[in-house]
Amino acid sequence: MHELSIAQSILDLVRPYVPEGGRVESVRLKVGEQSGVVAESLEFCWSAVVPGTPLADSHLVIEKSPFLIRCDACGAESESEGGLAVCPRCDSPRTRVTSGMELQVLDLELLEQPPVRA
Amino acid sequence: MSVVTIERKVLEKNEAFAEQNRRLFAGRGLFVINMVSSPGAGKTSLLEKTIERLKGKVRIAVIEGDVQTDLDARRVEQYGVPVVQIVTNGGCHLEARLVQDALQSIALDGVDLLVIENVGNLVCPANYDLGEAMKVVVASTTEGDDKPLKYPGMFRNASVLVINKIDLLPYVDCRIDELRGNALKINPRLEVFTLSCRTGEGLEEWCGWLHGRTKER
């Protein structure tokens, strides 16, 4: 259960990207299936860390990436269930992880600001 | 609606600290392992037995990580090695920054091997690089043989698996070949040791290997 510290890290990372007076609508993340982060917990923790910041009204948009391995024996890239490193096509253990470990902030979307009156 | 591109790793700050630690360790010719396991698998016992066996051959220092208390540091201190305790106060894992701070209060001169004993937890410490050369995951026979399948992240990120408490095999439903096989399905490159801290069986192989790796530095 380290989602709270992950949420805090995301907040610290994106805050400098919010322009003065700007409000954030959403933050888009890429979260690998085997990254060790639970999307639902992260969303819950996000709501706990944002109050009082320009991201107070924001929500997370989480794009999950599947766990993929490439086999050095048969060359196939396959989705592997349960995080196994054994090639589902030829049973070789000579594989490399090509996707599913990501934990990345992609971008943020700003809320439309009402026009400033002169 | 305007979009601001960021495209940065969430844990990049930790990774930067880990990289600083790694450079510091390399500069001192230190071999550093990060010991991880679920609570009660026997990390501290393994550490005690290792210090005993390598006495006079490898100079060891220890960083202990626990949620609360300095009980483990006090246990290890009795073996006459430099030790510092990190209390995370609820935190479920060590981070590279905490290790960097702890390094300020430990005498590393002449030390060959630094062992960082992480918080007992098979999930969160997998995500945090501390700057170590490798993670050593300890699994005990009392936890069952399916642990690697249930907690794949830790076994994937480790380089070594130590299976502890093999003296209890007659009394528990754990098939050692199944445990080893499951771990290798997650990470075929794992180096595996089987031992019992209680009886001493298998400790020689583990300590011999660790001694060799430390001297390679």
Describe the structure in your own words.
The complex is a heterodimer of chains A (118) and B (217). With 118 residues, chain A is α+β, with helices and mostly antiparallel strands. Chain A has a domain at 3-66 and 99-110: hypothetical protein PF0899 fold, CATH 3.30.2320. In chain A, helix 1 packs across helix 2 (39-49). Chain A has a 3-stranded mixed β-sheet, covered by helices on one side. Chain A has a 3-stranded antiparallel β-sheet with strand order 4-3-5, with no helix packed on it. Chain A is built from 2 helices and 6 strands. Chain B has 217 residues and is of the alpha/beta class. Chain B has helices at residues 12-28, 43-54, 71-77, 96-103, 147-150, 152-157, 176-186, 203-216; strands at residues 2-9, 31-37, 60-66, 83-87, 113-117, 134-140, 160-164, 191-194. Chain B has a 7-stranded parallel β-sheet with strand order 4-3-5-2-6-7-8, sandwiched between helices. In chain B, helix 7 links the parallel strand 7 and strand 8 (191-194). In chain B, helix 1 (12-28) runs parallel beside helix 4. The longest helix of chain B is centred in the N-terminal third of the chain and has 17 residues, at 12-28. The radius of gyration of chain B is 17 Å and the shape is globular. Chain A binds chain B through residues 1-2, 5-6, 9-10, 12-14, 17-18, 25, 29, 34-37, 82-86, 93-95, 97, 103-110, 112, and chain B through 1-14, 91-93, 95, 123-124, 126-127, 149, 152-153, 156, 184-188. Strand 6 (103-110) of chain A pairs antiparallel with strand 1 of chain B.
Salient structural properties:
heterodimer, A: 118 residues, alpha+beta, hypothetical protein PF0899 fold, three-stranded mixed sheet, three-stranded antiparallel sheet, 2 helices, 19% helix, elongated, B: 217 residues, alpha/beta, seven-stranded parallel sheet, 8 helices, 8 strands, 22% strand
